[in-house]
Amino acid sequence: MYKAFIFYCSPAGTTRHVAEVIEKTLDNFDRQITVCELGKNKGKLAEVIREIKDSDQEICLFIGSPVYSSHALPLIMDLIGRLPAKSLAYAVPFVTWGAATSGIALAEMGTALMQQGYKLIGAARVVAVHSLMWEVENPAGKGHPDYEDDDLIKNLVSNIENNLQKPDPKLLPEQILSYQSATVTAEMKQQNLELARKFLPPRKVNRDLCNQCGVCADKCPVAALTLTPYPTYAEHCILCFNCMRWCPENAIEADLSPAHDMVQLRYEKYKESPLSKIFLPT
């Protein structure tokens, strides 16, 4: 009998959606589940890591991240680096991506998990509406995740459940997550959030409209925004633009049209297929 842990960060809500499908499917098997959303409650994270360390059960971690600049979010990779070593521990990385490219996030997460001693037993990439295109009528990834994506995740969890009942569960080969070509992988390794800051538009706070209501700070998924008394961004901001998206006064302004064009160019360049896919041991 194993215990499941679900970790995720979800600026736009789609990674949370996938995590919730995982949780509901596990619950159908009467599995013990601990869920931890990363980004704000550091006390909860430390508590869950202690729970993993102290557990004498076999455990399986489901760890989810949106793909940003071809990679998993830094706080997801930081979490993996903090995981305690366990003798009977399995892991399932999963990513959501906005139809431009799923990058090399799964491969990097898989490698990091194995370096921590966790055995890969499954993985998934799930296409989602692009998080920067909420103002666009037909955004990249429109309508996703949909019921077919959900069914893929349910199938993933069911297969993992069955596999972990075996005396010697089959493991996922690490190389299966390195599905990008060598050329594309090398290109994506050069991308990061710091480079993204150079081409994404700056945010401007319209002080005539801002009433310091605090919605922007509440919606920041990584607690990188404070009111002093107007919105101020910390260095660990992940450029999700939630502050702009959810501001009730439209006081945070930026021209996202160049980003929309970039998404389209990346979609046409990489053309990943299928858009959503699960990875299971053979």
Describe the structure.
- The protein has ten helices and eleven strands.
- With 282 residues, the chain is α/β, with parallel strands linked by helices.
- The chain has two domains: 2-183 and 271-279, 3-Layer(aba) Sandwich (Rossmann fold); 202-254, Alpha-Beta Plaits (2-Layer Sandwich), CATH 3.30.70.
- Strands 1, 2, 3, 4, 5, 6 and 11 form a seven-stranded mixed sheet that branches.
- Helix 1 (14-28) links the parallel strand 1 and strand 2 (32-37).
- It starts with a strand and ends with a strand.
- The model has no long low-confidence stretch (mean pLDDT 95).
Low-confidence stretches: none
Q: Name the structural class.
A: alpha/beta
In whole angstroms, how far apart are the ends? 23 Å
Number of strands: 11
Rg of Cα set: 19 Å
Write the layout of secondary structure elements.
Layout: E1 2-8, H1 14-28, E2 32-37, H2 42-54, E3 58-66, H3 74-82, E4 89-97, H4 105-115, E5 119-120, E6 123-127, H5 147-163, H6 182-189, H7 193-199, E7 204-205, H8 215-219, E8 225-227, E9 231-233, H9 242-246, E10 252-253, H10 257-270, E11 277-279
Parallel strand pairs: 1-2, 1-3, 3-4, 4-5, 4-6
Antiparallel strand pairs: 6-11, 7-10, 8-9
